[in-house]
Amino acid sequence: MKSLMHTQGSTTASDVYKATLTSHVGICQSPPRIVPIEVSYSEQQQAQLAYFLRLLKQANQENRWIMFIGQDALLDKRLLINAGIDINKVLLLKNMKNQSKHLLMVKALEMGNCSAVIVAGEIETFDTPLITMAAEQSKTLAFVLNQNVKAQLTFH
Which tens digit of pLDDT belongs to each residue from 87-129? Predict the structure, then answer.
């Protein structure tokens, strides 16, 4: 499955969530650790956000933290609560001390204390061997949020 995801370009939250469902048994299993996972959404298109929240809820079942790197990655508290995420297991790294988000993500993944690490930005910045290796070794989901604020209007 990993080679399938990497040949298609970036891996999306819907790809990973759908892969967690077993077709013959009908039960959920742990999400596969394919990283980084791109979550691209806008106010008009929120399907990827919904899949992302489902994956976070699954990750929240582990006895580890969910870390958001930077205020721009943090989602609304009510949205997290409504998705069934225990906010007592959510961390926000605000003071980045002039370190790159890439380096901070690698460090957070390497520590192994998180079930998911989330950052905002472009997938190309975070789709690196360092992040992939750190996430695989720590068995942590790595998400890159890309809120598409440029709404596309269709005139009829």
Answer: 999 999 988 788 999 999 999 999 999 999 999 999 999 999 9
Mean pLDDT computed over every residue of the chain: 80
Mean pLDDT throughout 11-28?
58
pLDDT at residue 152 above 50? no
Using a pLDDT cut of 90, give the percent of the chain over it. Answer: 57
User: How far, in Å, CA of 139 to CA of 115, rounded?
Assistant: 7
With a CB cutoff of 8 Å and minimum separation 6, the contacts of 134 are 106, 109, 110, 140
Alpha carbon 139 to its chain's center: 13
Residues 66/85, Cβ–Cβ less than 8 Å? yes
Paired sense of beta strands 114-120 and 141-147, if any: parallel
Q: Would you list the DSSP string of 15-69? A: HHHHHHB-TTT--B-PPP--S-EEEEE-SS--HHHHHHHHHHHHHTTSSSEEEEE
Task: Report how far residue 130's alpha carbon sits from residue 102's, in angstroms, rounded to the nearest whole number.
Answer: 9
CB atoms within 10 A of CB 18: 11
Residue 128 backbone zone (phi > 0: left; psi -120 to 50: alpha; other: beta): beta
CA distance 36 to 120: 12
